[in-house]
């Protein structure tokens, strides 16, 4: 059948100017090839490449992504696309010697989505297309297997009904489940031909009822409708969410692959499976996957029956197994990367349906990269792109403390270790509940999403949960694949647990758990425990592998990476992860220490300079000791210290609390009064007798300090300008500590940073104070220390007049949190009220507080850098916002010519890798070889 040579005329006749919309593959050759992912999508490119390599791929054709983009623009498919499709179909029919859905041996096809970047399960696929009331009889006859024919037909109506006619899945599931119950069988395979015919009759009724039309009997109409539905599936909500999370361009569109069906559900020498050439969780080199006999399409990952480990295939069909191993090994060598493949066996014959670079955990990514370098498959230069910087966290995730594990707490040990890391959280049963209960900002709450199985509809809940637990599905199930991509702990297919979704209950080991109950998941081993278990830091062996990997990437890095750390402990941690300095040391956090908060509050409550100075005097030695600690930890590296920034009332009690306490004071018992004394001790209340006088005074001061919009209020350099004695004290503490450390042989490089500057005069005012105090201290102590004074750029005005400000500032550090707030006018703490809608509507592509808005805020960063350096060519420029640890923002900072990024200690490694990859891409002149 594959020997027919194709007539060349058709392609020659096509005018050169018309777009080639349809690419055929089959009979040993393909119009396209593996490099054409933009045009053919990943799946189409893979099918073409495999066909060209002579692998057993069912023939077909790919309608390219441009047709989808046109469909998005015009809501229709052009005549030219129709024409080329008909032409390709005719060619396929000739090749097969069959006709789509007609004749004694009808041709059936699958209609499969496939975009440039794989989006597992996000878009739609329809199988067995071409079947109708007539061709199903022909199929039954020609295969001599009515059960198979009706099974295929019911699947078509089900998929077509759902994907094309928008009928909800449960409509069909209910009919199917009822039939299984009636026939007293647990599995789909337990239904005979007659039962399936009854199912089909009911399915057709359901279609009529819900779609207000009959299931289309005309094969070509089916094909056209399915094609357009696949185009539309690019725009469905779950696909949109997936693209947002994975930063995939909305405009790419999907290709449509039309491919002749091979039947894994034909009989017991048929089946379907999926696999990986290496273990996607650990990276270990082992053949890995699952299959099901007498099954079709997604049965294997959907949990309808429990799949069989792929190694079993060796016993059941040794020849097929050997061929599959040989093919997938070849594919891995060819693509030089771990492959994730799909196959179907029909009557003992193997067919390859898909291959792509497999998604994997960070641990696996590094393990595979190192192995492949050792095997000589890839170079070290290629290897450094094989880890997504965001996945570095996998190495830093918690492990379960085995000492805290009591046998009675183990609920099951038989879950699959789908995605590593241990997490503790509260149970939720739906994605919506996960979103609701997970909270945000300071009120974040760890939730674990528990489901029989996750589906692409759950993606929003999976995003906010700390971990996922499922009772069904295998290592290649949706939950497993998606969580591995997210770097989130997952235990999948824990069959000993029962998830009763309607009752919102988790039952296991004779116990019942409800929403809100605490459990612990260990995604590294597949165990589930009741209650909160103690967690331990990451595995040193894995960290050693990461270190080896980083040693290949690091030489390319040109931009520095610092950390944000306020206390010596964090500074030490940052240094451990390779931070090359502190980019932001926030002094206010130091005031929250035990002994410090008292004098701090005293300082704030003082209503004159004298009182303030007295309190500041008490603070001076405390701050000096803090700075000395950080300097010591960062010996030899620069430390950027920001002067006091937040509005003062953050250090005072809440106005409402005070009002209540004052109103109720006379009715309080002596015990309650004692508690009040404790509560207000730091505000000068010494005994119960003081309360009556002290509280109203305190309230008066709180009201004085009250602001309608504290974020834009009396804060930042405005504090230091209105109360210069604060800046003086802080500068003194910094320089005294610096001199003391220097005398002890510690190399100190302080950079004093003035926050929230909008005008050059503010900078000049504060800079003068810092420099004067520095001179005083150096004179007093007889030692000088090199230092710098600079500013944070966090207001649009500062970015605009950066050229002026650079006259006074020796360095800039972009405070991109505030800069994002003030550029968008979004409050970071309140954006969650609008963000979900904005993302859903596509008004924003990403949370601008998570990934730097390169278009807007980024423009200010670029402009301020250019203008600042024009004035002062040696200007040191960095960024210290949350964005400093986010890979796409890091890349942007590198391209903009920043000297460093600074981020939380935990993200230093991520930033280092992102910066190294950005520079390596340039040096090696490669298009970043990251797998998406
Ligand atoms: P996804 O992108 O979600 O993986 P696919 O297009 O790969 O979707 O198809 C879904 C399932 O249907 C897969 O298991 C695939 O192997 C199977 N399938 C697709 N086309 C065919 C075909 N022509 N014959 C048999 N099975 C097919
Ligand atoms: Mg699918
Ligand atoms: Mg697939």
List keywords for this structure.
single chain; 932 residues; alpha/beta; 8-stranded mixed sheet; 8-stranded parallel barrel; 44% helix; 16% strand; disordered N terminus; binds adenosine-5'-diphosphate; binds magnesium ion
Strand order of the largest sheet: 13-23-22-15-16-17-18-14
Helix percentage range:
40-55%
Number of strands: 32
Bound molecules: adenosine-5'-diphosphate, magnesium ion
Mean pLDDT reading: 91
Estimate what percentage of residues fall within beta strands.
15-25%
SS field, number of helical segments: 37
Assembly state of the chains shown = single chain
Gross geometry: elongated
Provide the gyration radius in Å: 33 Å
Structural write-up:
The structure is a single chain. This protein is α/β, with parallel strands linked by helices and 932 residues long. Helix content is 44%, strand content 16%. It is built from 37 helices and 32 strands. It has an eight-stranded mixed sheet with strand order 13-23-22-15-16-17-18-14. The chain has an eight-stranded parallel beta barrel with strand order 25-26-27-28-29-30-31-32, surrounded by seven helices. Helix 23 packs antiparallel against helix 24. It starts with 8 loop residues before the first helix and ends in a 9-residue tail after the last helix. Residues 1-15 have low confidence and may be disordered. The structure holds adenosine-5'-diphosphate (ADP) and magnesium ion (2 copies). The site of one magnesium ion (MG) has 2 residues, from loops.
């Amino acid at each position: 059948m594959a020997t027919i040579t194709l007539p060349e005329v058709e392609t020659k006749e096509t005018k050169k100017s018309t777009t080639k919309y349809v690419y055929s593959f089959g009979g040993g050759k393909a119009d396209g090839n593996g490099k054409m992912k933009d045009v053919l999508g990943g799946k189409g490119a893979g099918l073409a490449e495999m066909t060209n390599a002579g692998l057993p791929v069912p023939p077909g054709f790919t309608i390219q992504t441009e047709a989808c983009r046109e469909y998005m623009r015009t809501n229709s498919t052009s005549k030219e696309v129709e024409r080329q499709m008909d032409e390709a179909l005719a060619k396929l029919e000739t090749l097969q010697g069959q006709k789509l859905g007609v004749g004694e041996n009808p041709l059936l096809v699958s209609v499969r989505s496939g975009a440039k970047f794989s989006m597992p399960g996000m878009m739609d696929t329809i199988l067995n297309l071409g079947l109708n009331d007539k061709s199903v009889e022909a199929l039954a006859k020609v295969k001599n297997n009515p059960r198979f024919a009706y099974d295929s037909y019911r699947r078509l109506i089900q998929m077509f009904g759902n994907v094309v006619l928008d009928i909800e899945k449960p409509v069909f599931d209910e009919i199917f489940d009822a039939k299984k119950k009636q026939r007293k069988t647990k599995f789909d395979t337990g239904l005979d031909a007659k039962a399936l015919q009854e199912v089909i009759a009911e399915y057709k009724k359901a279609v009529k009822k819900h779609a207000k039309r009959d299931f289309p009997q005309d094969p070509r109409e089916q094909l056209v409708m399915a094609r357009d539905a696949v185009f539309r599936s690019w725009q469905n909500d779950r696909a949109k969410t997936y693209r947002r999370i994975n930063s995939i361009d909305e405009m790419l569109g999907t290709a449509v692959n039309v491919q002749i069906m091979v039947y894994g559900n034909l009989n017991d020498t048929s089946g379907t499976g999926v696999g990986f050439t290496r273990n996607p969780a650990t990276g270990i080199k082992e053949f890995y996957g699952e299959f099901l006999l007498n099954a079709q399409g997604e049965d294997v990952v959907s949990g309808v029956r429990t799949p069989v480990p792929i190694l079993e295939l060796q016993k059941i069909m040794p020849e097929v197994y050997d061929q599959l191993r040989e093919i997938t090994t070849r594919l891995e060598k060819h693509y030089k990367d771990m492959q994730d493949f799909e196959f179907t066996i029909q009557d003992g014959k193997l067919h390859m349906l898909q291959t792509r670079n497999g998604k994997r955990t960070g641990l696996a990514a590094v393990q595979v990269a190192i192995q492949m370098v050792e095997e000589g498959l890839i170079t070290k230069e290629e290897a450094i792109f094989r880890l997504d910087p965001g996945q570095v966290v996998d190495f830093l995730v918690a492990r379960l403390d085995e000492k805290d594990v009591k046998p009675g707490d183990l609920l099951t040990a038989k879950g699959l270790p789908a995605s590593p890391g241990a997490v503790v959280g509260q149970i939720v049963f739906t994605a919506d509940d996960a979103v609701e209960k997970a909270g945000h900002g300071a009120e974040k709450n760890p939730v674990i999403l528990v489901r029989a199985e996750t589906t692409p509809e759950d993606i929003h809940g999976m995003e906010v949960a700390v971990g996922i637990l499922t009772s069904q599905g295998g290592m290649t199930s949706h939950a497993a694949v998606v969580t591995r991509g997210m770097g989130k702990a997952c235990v999948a297919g824990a069959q000993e647990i029962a998830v009763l979704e309607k009752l919102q209950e988790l039952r296991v080991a004779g116990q019942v758990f409800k929403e809100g109950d605490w459990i612990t998941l260990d995604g590294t081993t597949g165990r589930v425990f009741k209650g909160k278990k103690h967690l331990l830091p990451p595995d040193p062996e894995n960290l050693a592998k990461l270190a080896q990997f980083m040693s290949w990437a690091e030489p390319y890095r040109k931009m520095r990476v610092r950390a944000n750390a306020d206390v010596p402990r964090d500074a030490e941690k940052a240094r451990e992860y390779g931070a090359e300095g502190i980019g932001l040391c926030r002094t206010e956090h130091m005031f929250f220490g035990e002994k410090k908060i008292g004098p701090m509050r005293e300082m704030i409550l003082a209503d004159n300079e004298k009182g303030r100075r007295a309190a500041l005097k008490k603070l001076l030695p405390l701050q000096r000791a803090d700075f000395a600690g950080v300097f010591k930890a960062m010996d030899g590296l620069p430390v950027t210290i920001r002067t006091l920034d937040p509005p003062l009332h953050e250090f005072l009690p809440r106005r409402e609390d005070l009002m209540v306490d004052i109103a109720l004071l006379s009715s309080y018992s002596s015990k309650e009064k004692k508690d009040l004394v404790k509560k207000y001790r730091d505000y000068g209340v010494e005994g119960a007798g003081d309360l009556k006088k002290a509280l109203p005074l305190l309230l008066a001061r709180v009201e004085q300090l009250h602001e309608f919009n504290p974020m834009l209020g009396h804060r930042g350099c405005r504090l230091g300008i209105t109360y210069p004695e604060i800046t003086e004290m802080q500068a003194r503490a910094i320089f005294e500590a610096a001199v003391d450390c220097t005398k002890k042989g510690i190399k100190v490089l302080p950079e004093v940073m003035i926050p929230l500057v909008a005008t050059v005069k503010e900078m000049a005012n504060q800079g003068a104070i810092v420099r004067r105090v520095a001179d005083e201290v150096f004179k007093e102590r007889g030692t000088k220390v090199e230092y710098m004074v600079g500013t944070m750029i966090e207001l649009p005005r500062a970015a605009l007049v950066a050229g002026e400000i650079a006259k006074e500032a020796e360095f800039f550090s972009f405070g991109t949190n505030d800069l994002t707030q003030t550029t968008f006018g979004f409050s970071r703490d309140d954006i969650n009220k609008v963000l979900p809608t904005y993302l859903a509507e596509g008004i924003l592509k990403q949370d601008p507080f998570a990934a730097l808005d390169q278009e807007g805020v980024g423009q200010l960063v670029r402009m301020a850098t250019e203008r600042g350096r024009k004035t002062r060519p040696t200007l040191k420029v960095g960024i210290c916002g949350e964005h400093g640890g986010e890979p796409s923002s890091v890349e942007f900072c590198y391209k903009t010519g920043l000297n460093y990024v600074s981020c939380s200690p935990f993200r230093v490694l991520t930033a280092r890798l992102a910066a190294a990859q950005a520079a390596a891409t340039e040096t090696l002149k490669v298009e970043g070889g990251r797998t998406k």
